[in-house]
Amino acid sequence: MLLPGDxxxxxxxxxxxxxxxxxxxxxxxxxxxxxxxxxxxxYALLLRRDGPRSEAVARYYRPGVNWAGRxxxxxxxxxxxxxxxxxxxxxxxxxxxxxxxTTWTIAAVLGEVVLWPAERRLQRLAADPATDRRVLVRTTxxxxxxxxxxxxxxxxxxxxxxxxP
Length: 165
Description:
- This protein is an all-alpha fold.
- It has one domain.
- It is about 70% helix and about 0% strand.
- The chain has six helices and no strands.
- Helix 2 runs antiparallel to helix 4 and helix 5 runs antiparallel to helix 6.
- It is elongated, with a radius of gyration of 19 Å.
């Protein structure tokens, strides 16, 4: 149970270095994965600006899978590992874990169904000099909105994970 004044790591101090290491990886995977998702939205907005594209935007939209964004799939794996390592302190029946898994699933589905397909379309549009501007604007809006939504979901989930209601 989280008592007032406890910190995230103070709760895990009796579980050892392995638990703390997995917890750190879990938190880093969440922030890195959703950080990359946030960057995807920013680059989508940069892509639709008029004028020549910057080297960074051109490099971001070269063909290929955005594997960095898929870091978010480590989050529930590491979370399940933490539950298993918690010696019964945490369970899948805990409200904060249920909320976390549900919101993570929503964000992951949004990424797979909306954001990453929009990024693939943007790769093709960025490579085609005859791209219809309206299609580019519509696709960048879709990517940016999906990215922003995923980041908001992540922030909400992070608060729930720390607060453990």
